């Protein structure tokens, strides 16, 4: 795939900038990755637990800063037809907006002001309000949805207590309640320094002008302290099936499983993700064919992968069907067969074609490309790695997929949840 | 403790918005088959094909609710009875994907493919559409999957709320009052024979195929024609659509969901369809109410009170009418207070919309269009939807122009004229045991239905 030229620059305060010109539509996407997520939170190891703080803090970033009044960030962007949001995951928090290119400087100014001066606008009232909002987010997305806490439960089963990945970004109600203004200020001072961030701009811009704008608005933000080294995230391979029977009102019995995969960026991740795709990625996959079409023990089955860099990547299998124990057995049969036979040439080719399609989807919008550039710059020090995703997948052989399946998707080695059904 | 950024520049004043217009297409027709619309989008390497057929759930025969949706699903099983994963695999090999679904207005077929493999993907699509197997065994399996899906939808508060809203708003027994994809009772009776009969009655010449992407060097029309030529209806036409209109409230219905930690609030009212001159003004009214974080509902219920993660208001686009819906989930304990605030915000629009508020909403809706329609998929879906509603290929462009011409007074007038605050239908999905009393204390008389 043709690589689009990237322009890179690092400010004296450590902020790294990546710019990619894309003149198809008069838009500019701004995307900032801060290298902080839920894995950097305290979760009880030293007697203090502040799970959910990274995400709660993300909400506070929209409540104003030294030169931006409460509500003004949203008002300025909304009234310009901009789309904007932020998200918090295990390893990073990102903030992004797509604006008409006429509003690029305004977007940069807004991002710079909150990067430089967020605590100036932090009040107890804002914290209390956004804490309530986040608690309602937790209820809406997880607690009040059937199977809504499955991912959280699986992480708790997969990782030992206190492990950085044992809790998910939404955090616990208790820890959200316990969070103070001081926690938030300290969190900001520790993690929101320019040197811990990457800023990407993609769109109808002149690269040198865009970099000059970044210098103008971000250049005088003090460098701040270096981010503390993260706690190690490695995990021994899973052995046996660690099963939790979930006693929750759900519409149908179901079986959820989590398996660990190699970390992103290493030599094995591409093959491992393709193995997971062949196993359960859509209606052409092995698990779908076996469980839904042929045996009809499930009405739905799906496999997905969350790539992680500082810990193991995670594969999830979800199946809806009346007999979770039977689903578990059939999953083992299919895993054993896959490990032994490996994929067919056709399966490997299809997985590579899907990876190519995935790349096209990821980089076709200015926002998607900006996020990918920030991700690859933050995690691999190489924003251009964005463009090699398809060729990395195409280079994987059927033999490598077989090896990855045998090693990472072995039968009888996972954590699992069973909802209802026969016991 | 906090210092300002030294020498931080003043807030930049943005220049004028850059020019942009919704892409135009070239219209054509496949002899005896669908109308076509080709739209070239430079740089878009993922092409999109959207085929809309005038075979939405609104045209199902009595007693066959859900047959349109089921037909769309069985279609994706391909050309061989029991063909298994063959069709899915064939599209995957191309890095392409095929989906199909129905709403009340149309049966929609969605093909996405890299432009380099578009012609091959279209060839496959043509084989499926001209000769689908529509096999009995596949149908039976997909009926079971659909029944499972109904159970899942009814367990999720938002989808349960919308289903109940339609049941309350539209006359009992009318097609729009019932779930587009059918109910448990109707779906479990559907057969392969009914699916085949439904498919054979679809008239391709009543449909439109939209194709978008960087089509430089691709004979899009030729490939479309080769794929779809010769495909004909082989049975009598489907009955005309059921165009029952929403009826006025007031109503307040609680869908009981014991143990719910939140209540899903959903307030609705019928409005005219997209062909009505007030549609753009009503869209702006919705944005003022629940379009973003600064909208009236979110400013009050989220940013001031912390009752919710977010509220939104919008218009549901049916072909023959529209539905105004304001909705969001609130903590169970504050349900009654939140409803009072929500209804108050809805009423507040009658007292007027500020000129600045109106301009901001218009800009939020119209100036986001270049970003909303950045992908070939988004452009194709919008054009196909306009076609399925009989609005014409220039509709998206006209709509954006009309939107920019909306005035604050026009918003207030249209909202007051079409949405009667004394005739709203309120649906709350939540724990009736906990929320009924507080609602009655505030003068409401809720009816409780089972979840």
UniProtKB/TrEMBL annotation, chain A:
Belongs to the peptidase M16 family. It comes from the Bacteria. GO terms for biological process: proteolysis. It holds the Pfam family Peptidase_M16. This is Peptidase M16 domain protein. GO terms for molecular function: metal ion binding; metallopeptidase activity. Residues 180-354 form the Peptidase M16 C-terminal domain. Keywords: Hydrolase, Metalloprotease, Protease, Zinc. The keyword Isomerase does not apply. Residues 17-154 form the Peptidase M16 N-terminal domain.
């Amino acid at each position: 795939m043709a690589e689009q030229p990237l322009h890179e620059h690092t400010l004296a305060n450590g902020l790294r900038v990546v710019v990619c010109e894309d003149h198809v539509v008069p838009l500019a996407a701004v995307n900032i990755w801060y290298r902080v997520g839920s894995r950097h939170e305290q979760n009880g190891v030293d007697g203090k637990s502040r799970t959910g703080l990274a995400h709660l803090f993300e909400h506070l970033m929209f409540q104003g800063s030294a030169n931006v009044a409460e509500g003004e960030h949203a008002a300025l962007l909304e009234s310009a037809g901009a789309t904007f949001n932020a998200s918090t995951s295990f390893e990073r928090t990102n903030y992004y907006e797509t604006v008409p290119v006429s509003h690029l400087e305004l977007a940069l100014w807004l991002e710079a002001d909150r990067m430089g001066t967020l605590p100036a606008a932090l009040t107890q009232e804002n914290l209390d309000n956004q804490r309530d909002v986040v608690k309602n987010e937790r209820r809406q997305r997880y607690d009040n949805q059937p199977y809504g806490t499955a991912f959280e439960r699986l992480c708790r089963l997969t990782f030992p207590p206190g492990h950085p990945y044992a809790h998910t970004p939404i955090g616990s109600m208790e820890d959200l309640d316990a969070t103070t203004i001081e926690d938030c200020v300290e969190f900001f001072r520790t993690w929101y320094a320019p040197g811990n961030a990457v800023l990407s701009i993609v769109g109808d811009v002149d690269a040198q002008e865009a970099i000059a704008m970044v210098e103008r608005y971000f250049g005088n933000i003090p460098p701040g302290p270096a981010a503390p080294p993260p706690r190690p995230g490695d995990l021994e391979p899973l052995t046996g099936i660690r099963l939790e029977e979930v006693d929750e009102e759900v519409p149908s019995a179901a079986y959820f499983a989590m398996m660990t995969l190699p970390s992103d960026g290493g030599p094995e991740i591409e093959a491992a993700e393709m193995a997971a795709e062949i196993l359960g990625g859509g209606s052409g996959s092995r698990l779908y064919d076996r469980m839904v079409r042929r045996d009809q023990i499930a009405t739905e089955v799906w496999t997905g992968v969350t790539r992680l860099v500082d810990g193991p990547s995670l594969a999830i299998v979800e199946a809806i069907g009346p007999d979770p124990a039977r689903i578990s057995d059939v999953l083992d049969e299919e895993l054993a067969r896959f490990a032994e036979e490996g994929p067919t040439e056709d399966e490997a080719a299809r997985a590579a074609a899907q990876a190519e399609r995935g790349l096209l989807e990821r980089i076709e919008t200015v926002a998607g490309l900006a996020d990918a550039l920030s991700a690859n710059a933050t995690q691999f020090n190489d924003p251009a790695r964005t463009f090699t995703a398809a060729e990395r997948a195409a280079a994987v052989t059927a033999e490598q997929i077989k090896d990855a399946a045998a090693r990472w998707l072995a039968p009888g080695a996972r954590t699992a949840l069973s909802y209802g059904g026969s016991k | 403790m906090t210092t300002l950024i030294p020498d931080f520049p003043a807030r930049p004043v943005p220049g004028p918005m850059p020019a942009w217009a919704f892409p135009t297409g070239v219209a054509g027709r496949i002899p005896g088959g669908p109308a076509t619309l080709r739209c070239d989008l430079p740089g878009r390497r993922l092409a999109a094909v959207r085929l809309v057929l005038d075979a939405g759930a609104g045209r199902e025969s009595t007693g066959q609710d859900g047959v349109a949706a089921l037909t769309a699903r069985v279609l994706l099983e391909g050309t061989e009875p029991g063909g298994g994963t063959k069709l899915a695999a064939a599209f995957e090999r191309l890095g392409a994907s095929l989906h199909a679904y129905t709403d009340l207005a149309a049966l929609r077929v969605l093909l996405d493919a890299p432009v380099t493999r578009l012609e091959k993907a279209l060839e496959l699509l043509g084989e499926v559409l001209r000769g689908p197997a529509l096999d009995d065994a596949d149908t039976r399996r997909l009926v079971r999957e659909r029944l499972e899906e109904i159970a899942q939808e009814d367990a999720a508060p938002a989808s349960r709320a919308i289903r109940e809203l339609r049941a309350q708003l539209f006359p009992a027994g009318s097609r729009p009052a019932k779930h587009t994809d059918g109910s448990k009772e109707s779906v479990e009776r559907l057969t392969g024979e009914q699916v085949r009969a439904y498919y054979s009655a679809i008239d391709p010449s009543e449909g439109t195929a939209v194709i978008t992407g960087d089509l430089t060097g691709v004979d899009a029309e030729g490939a479309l024609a080769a794929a779809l030529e010769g495909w004909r209806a082989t049975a009598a036409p489907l009955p005309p659509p059921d165009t029952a209109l929403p009826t006025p409230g007031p109503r307040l219905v609680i869908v009981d969901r014991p143990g719910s930690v939140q209540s899903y609030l959903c307030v609705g009212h019928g409005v005219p369809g997209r062909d009505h001159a007030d549609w753009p003004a009503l869209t702006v009214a919705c944005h003022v109410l629940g379009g973003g974080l600064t909208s009236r509902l979110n400013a009050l219920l989220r940013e001031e009170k912390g009752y919710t993660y977010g509220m939104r208001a919008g218009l549901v686009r049916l072909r023959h009418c529209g539905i105004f819906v304001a909705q969001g989930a609130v903590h169970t304990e504050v349900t009654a207070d939140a409803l009072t605030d929500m209804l108050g915000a809805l009423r507040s629009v009658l007292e007027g919309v500020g000129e600045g508020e109106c301009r901001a909403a218009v800009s939020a809706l119209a100036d986001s269009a270049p970003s909303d329609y950045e992908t070939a998929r988004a452009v194709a879906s919008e054009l196909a939807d306009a076609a399925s509603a009989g609005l014409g290929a220039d509709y998206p462009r006209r709509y954006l122009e009309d939107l920019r011409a909306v005035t604050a007074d026009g918003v207030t007038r249209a909202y007051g004229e079409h949405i009667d605050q004394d005739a709203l239908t309120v649906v709350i999905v939540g724990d009736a045991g906990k929320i009924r009393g507080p609602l009655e204390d505030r003068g409401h008389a809720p009816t409780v239905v089972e979840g």
